[in-house]
Amino acid sequence: MQRHNPVDDHVDENSPVLPVSVLAAAESAATHAMVADDARRLGDETVALLTHAGFARHFVPRAWGGTEGTFGSLVTAAAAVGEGCASAAWCAVLWAAHSRFAAYLPNEGQRDLWWAGPDARICASVKPSGEVSRLPSGRLLSGEWECVSGVDFADWLLVCAPEPGAEGAARLRMFAVPKGDFRVRDSWNSSGMRGTGSHTAVLEAAFVPDHRSFPMEDLLAGTPGPGRSRCHTVPAHLAGGLLFCAPALGAARGALAVWSVWAARAQARGLPQHDGSRLHHALARSADDIEAAELLLLDAARCADTGTRAEADVLRNRRRSAAAVDLLVDGVERLFRTAGVSACAGPGPIERSWRDIHTVAAHQMLRREAAAMGYAASVFSSLTDHGSLAAVRPAALREASAS
């Protein structure tokens, strides 16, 4: 029987309406954000409410009770949680993303993860690490994987490791390991996104049967296969960046709301004309940046929801996501500097959002230079193709030559 997913209830990029369960999770995340930041982990109540809101089951195949949800609804729901706590939104969106990864497991492996229901929380590390030894019916896996967000609450762990090939060439595979077969080493001391508890997962000779692994190349390419729906066959780089940005979008909105209250009170107390004008400009420009970032992300989500696997769409979405996070950094940086010590001297929503968004922007997936190089190389390559040049209007060619 298909289970209901609250995240998908009345949530789309054209509507601000959110289901009660998502709002409850967002409220809990906001209430406990400072505690999570200090403790370097989410609270149990917030984790339970995020799970109840449907994030973990968002991309789980319908055969296991999931809803195979949309990227647009996930971005909208995660951003709502991120307004109060970017760390909670980050864990929530990754639980959803990792259930999409797990859909690449063979059917027997999927049964291991979801036989009891679609709400299993899956954490992952796609950075290759560890050592693999081949056995007759599986692999022996050992090693350490850093920066595994929400690992304290993981029911399952997905990790990437290089498996030596017949001719010495390593082939990357993803392996699913249940809670109890790995331990957590406390190692997360980042300045931002502290509540994600992105500690190190340690495996010591864990046996992984064949049905709990799959080739990494399938995930990267979005390879179609039995039981995989449209949301599962999207290339990893087409959707990854926009999902990473959703918590930052929420954090920027939250910072803008808090800053606006502070600025309105400052205005009411009376300010010199120059300072009043500075606050007006900061509000308008930062709102522009945040809303522009949202438009880019929602457009990228719409593209992902078409199920496209075209390289041009992958590169375009990477560019959009990288541009969006830069806009969010600029917008919150302006708020932070404008408020100064009067609003940001100590821990608080603006200061925490500033730290969190800078940390998200540092993620390798969101590096704008790399995204720009890939996108530009594709565009220039297509324009130097003889057929593409022939299609360009002569007037445009003459104008380009003259310049």
General description of the model:
- A 4-stranded mixed sheet has the order 1-4-5-8. Strands 2-3-7-6 form a 4-stranded antiparallel sheet, with no helix packed on it.
- The chain contains 15 helices and 8 strands.
- It is 53% helix and 14% strand.
- The chain is α+β, with helices and mostly antiparallel strands and 403 residues long.
- The chain is globular.
- A hairpin with a 2-residue loop joins strand 2 and strand 3.
- The termini are far apart.
- Helix 4 runs antiparallel to helix 5, helix 4 packs parallel to helix 8 and helix 10 runs antiparallel to helix 12.
Quick overview of this protein structure:
This protein has helices at 20-31, 33-39, 44-52, 71-82, 86-102, 107-114, 216-221, 236-269, 273-305, 311-339, 341-344, 349-361, 368-383, 386-391, 394-402, and strands at 122-125, 131-135, 138-148, 156-164, 170-178, 183-185, 199-209, 213-215.
Q: Which helices and strands occur, and which strands form pairs?
A:
Elements: H1 20-31, H2 33-39, H3 44-52, H4 71-82, H5 86-102, H6 107-114, E1 122-125, E2 131-135, E3 138-148, E4 156-164, E5 170-178, E6 183-185, E7 199-209, E8 213-215, H7 216-221, H8 236-269, H9 273-305, H10 311-339, H11 341-344, H12 349-361, H13 368-383, H14 386-391, H15 394-402
Parallel strand pairs: 1-4
Antiparallel strand pairs: 2-3, 3-7, 4-5, 5-8, 6-7
